[in-house]
Amino acid sequence: MKKLFSLASLAVLFTFVLSCSTNQEEIVEKYENGNPKTIYIYKTDKKQRIKTAEERLYENGKRRMYGKYDNDKRTGKWEFCFSNGELFARADFTNSPTGSGWEVYDTNGENLVTKDDKVLELHFAEDGGLCDVKIKKGEGEIFYKFFESFKPCIVSEMKGNIPNGKTTSWFENGQINSSYHYKDGIQDKEYKVYTEEGKTLIKGQYDMGTKVGKWEYFLSDGSPAGTEIYDVDGTLLKGRNE
């Protein structure tokens, strides 16, 4: 009888301990349509409420990011996703406030940053999402900047803190906004600007910061808006209204 009592007591004690450490979810932020935006996961230990994880979601209900916390700091593996649920990035925050072993992908699944790439610097947005990252690539560097949706905003070849090589920017709908080149921080070679619908607005050429050759301008509907002609030294030979 005594043995049965002891077993029953242990069962009650186990149930009590388990209930005290059970994870609890709390919706701390919602979208206007009522869907959860931010969820904190807590556990109660010795009457203390401790945050153990965080989940952020898109308005459509898909997960935006998820990861664990330890002593109010990110820890373990975190994942960041596009609004369609596909993986954007992952990293390990164990003993690393900015994460290690970063893997970053574009919307087509192309691997932009691999675990083997050396991350030179990165920044996070206010909600903790990856905002930009600069990596060592061969003899140069590449800087990636992202929209809040994690879609690429700017990709720029760099040398130190100055652009050196091709720079491309996008609209959030995926259309190219502009495409141009730098040489040691000075604009060089082709220069193109587009509308959000993909039509060309400006098309021209630089020679180390100087406009040269033919520059074409267009209206947003694609119709011509004039042409400029420059000499090799940058002298304007023909204006748009001539």
Automatic annotation (TrEMBL):
SUPFAM superfamilies: Histone H3 K4-specific methyltransferase SET7/9 N-terminal domain
Gene3D superfamilies for this protein: 3.90.930.1, Histone H3 K4-specific methyltransferase SET7/9 N-terminal domain
UniProt signal peptide: 1-24
Keywords assigned: Signal
Protein name: MORN repeat variant
Species this chain originates from: Candidatus Onthomorpha intestinigallinarum
